Amino acid sequence: IEELTSHLPALQPQSSSNSSVESSNSTETSSPPVKRKPRLSFQGGAKRALLKWVQTTATKRLGLDVKDFGPSWRTGVAFHAVIFALQPHLVNMERVWRRPNRENLEEAFSLAEKELGIPRLLDPE
């Protein structure tokens, strides 16, 4: 995530007017434009932002505690929770809670690939 988003520019509010263009064409001398701090930035916080989304959207209402992108995902339940948040009809969370980790991981990766078009990048092993 960090690698992919490090190349993205910070998002800055876009003005609907051409005032900056008009002022640059002006013959008046004015002070240099003030740099505004971007409201949103992908750099340095993409992993944290994704983890926060998972925590608030996908796992909190299911009573699942996801603290990181490591051990919190080993059971496969967090992967199913994300799929459930996106497409609830695809996942039976009661069944997920009772199954072995390997089965959960295999099903989550298969569902993500077949139903959501997310390429399988991990193996349950």
Automatic annotation (TrEMBL):
UniProt keyword Cell wall biogenesis/degradation, yes or no: no
Subcellular location: Membrane
Keyword annotations: Membrane, Repeat, Transmembrane, Transmembrane helix
One Pfam family, short name: CH
Any one cellular-component term (Gene Ontology): membrane
The Calponin-homology (CH) domain, residue ranges: 44-125
Residue intervals passing through the bilayer: none
Region (Disordered): 1-43
SUPFAM superfamilies: Calponin-homology domain, CH-domain (SSF47576)
Composition bias type Low complexity, residue spans: 15-33
Protein name as catalogued: Calponin-homology (CH) domain-containing protein
Biological source species: Cirrhinus mrigala (Mrigala)
